[in-house]
Amino acid sequence: AFSSAPITATLFPGDGIGPEIAESVKQIFREAEVPIEWEEHYVGTEIDPRTQSFLTWESLESVRRNRVGLKGPMATPIGKGHRSLNLTLRKELNLYANVRPCYSLPGYKTRYDDVNLVTIRENTEGEYSGLEHQVVRGVVESLKIITRQASLRVAEYAFHYAKAHGRERVSAIHKANIMQKTDGLFLKCCREVAEKYPEITYEEVVIDNCCMMLVKNPALFDVLVMPNLYGDIISDLCAGLIGGLGLTPSCNIGEGGIALAEAVHGSAPDIAGKNLANPTALLLSGVSMLRHLELHDKADRIQKAVLETIAEGKYRTADLGGSSTTSDFTRAICDHL
Ligand code: NAD
């Protein structure tokens, strides 16, 4: 037998509950003997002029070098003259797609027990281009930018993802009946890419109808791809279907194969430092990172242990109606490994 060298991955524990849930991930990864060495980076206390934000140049370089990382929540300090941390990461690392798998957790009862879908959100343009201004007093304007380049890129990613994960259908979500030029171009790009994947069923669903269908019967969907704002809203709707933000992982895909996985929740200042946070979202984000690295054995093992612990119901954190601390829950997962 031979042992291969460990993979170096960047870890941003983040703010608030971030360090507690990051500790839990490290402990569980150690227990599962995941061959990863973490390179930890913290949010700075001063603005780094090279990034114009509290994120240091060194931490961005770390993700660029390692091409893979895990990120806890980051609270952007209020003040002037700097960029938000999440925006800095997105722009500097060109994180063009946000991928959020949502599946029902066995044993944790919600309205549906058959959700199994993935939302893929365009992450760089659309309504989030930051181009807003006042035309005259009482009239403001916001520009929605859709480009062929960014639309093709996210569509390519969605079909590639569907194929790689054995999924059968990609639905493009849009409002092209009203936003004829912008969403029209987005759809045109999706159609072009769909032609290259005849084995995958392609459909187009208008966003309002999509919301109705998701709430009525989420099992109708498989992979969904959409422009930025729709993705922001629909991905939270889907998180709600399976039990909320404490459970849902996500992964940001960047140019050149960069993957930065992150929990979608914030820093939860109300429970920070109290050993009460649920580490599941960050852990499952770590699992997506392992899948990106094709460490499927380790990913399966950790995912199974997390799901079993939640299903068993003996150790659950307060957000899931239990009374376990973060460390009790973490230990229970380690026992399931
Ligand atoms: P939040 O997600 O931090 O908290 C909302 C509610 O959910 C709180 O009651 C919190 O206790 C609970 N919660 C969240 N995660 C939990 C977990 N893992 N376990 C148990 N309970 C959990 O949202 P907020 O209060 O609106 O934001 C707080 C800060 O986080 C703000 O500074 C915001 O900018 C930042 N934020 C960062 C990110 C990110 O880094 N991706 C995302 C959202 C918010």
- Biggest sheet architecture: 10 strands, mixed
State the helix count: 10
| Helix-strand pattern | EHEHEHEEEEHEHEHEHEEHHH
Please mark out the parts with pLDDT under 50 across 5 or more consecutive residues, or reply none: none
Domain Isopropylmalate dehydrogenase-like: 8-333
Protein name: Isopropylmalate dehydrogenase-like domain-containing protein
Family: Belongs to the universal ribosomal protein uL18 family. Belongs to the isocitrate and isopropylmalate dehydrogenases family.
Subunit structure: Heterooligomer of catalytic and regulatory subunits.
What does this structure look like?
The protein is α/β, with parallel strands linked by helices and 337 residues long. The chain is built from ten helices and twelve strands. The chain has a ten-stranded mixed β-sheet, sandwiched between helices. The protein has a two-stranded antiparallel ribbon with strand order 6-7. Helix 1 (18-31) packs across helix 8 (280-292) and helix 8 packs antiparallel against helix 9. It starts with 6 loop residues before the first strand and ends with a helix. Nicotinamide-adenine-dinucleotide is lined by residues 17, 73-76, 86, 245-246, 262, 265-271, 277-278, 281, 319.
